[in-house]
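Example S7 (structure tokens).
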């Protein structure tokens, strides 16, 4: 089975290198059936289906790589780059729930990808300002920026909290912390 797996993986990469995406998709579908939990398989599957973002295989692999950090095996910066690529390839319509997006933002806060977290939270606030957990995530980002960020970014996030969540407990905490 190992030889067949590595042969399919090599053939998939070769087909993609020759820009034979239909063939690559056929091969990676076989590969995925053999090893559905393998991170490398999801990576190949994502790349093979990238040109067909409406296909469930593309979105499934993107979700797996983005939402399961053990499978993604990426640095925090590469994880953000994958998300940005996914958003672009999906026509700016990623098939991730608001809760999943919030989870990504929180992971980026924890891994000090503050700029990416700020951009994502700002987009979410523009679309769903009343989303549960959003004010808390903004405040988590503000705290992280207080400890490990620049004053400009901290001021922007503080202003966003005041603008989007003026009556929230997080806005009250922010006012106390800024005194």
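Recovered sequence:
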């Amino acid at each position: 089975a190992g030889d067949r797996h590595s042969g399919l993986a090599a053939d998939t990469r070769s087909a993609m290198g020759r820009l034979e995406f239909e063939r690559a998709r056929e091969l990676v579908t076989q590969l995925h059936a053999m090893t559905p939990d393998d991170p490398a398989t999801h990576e190949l599957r994502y790349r093979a289906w990238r040109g067909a973002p409406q296909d469930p295989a593309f979105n499934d692999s993107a979700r797996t790589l983005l939402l399961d950090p053990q499978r993604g095996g990426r640095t925090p910066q590469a994880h953000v780059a994958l998300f940005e690529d996914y958003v672009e390839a999906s026509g700016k319509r990623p098939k991730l729930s608001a809760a999943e997006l919030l989870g990504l933002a929180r992971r980026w806060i924890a891994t000090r990808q503050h700029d990416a977290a700020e951009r994502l939270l700002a987009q979410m606030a523009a679309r769903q300002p009343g989303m549960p957990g959003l004010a808390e995530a903004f405040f988590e980002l503000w705290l992280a920026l207080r400890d490990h960020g620049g004053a400009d970014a901290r001021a922007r996030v503080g202003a966003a909290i005041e603008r989007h969540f003026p009556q929230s407990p997080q806005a009250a905490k922010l006012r106390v912390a800024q005194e």
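Notes on this example. The chain has a mean pLDDT of 90.
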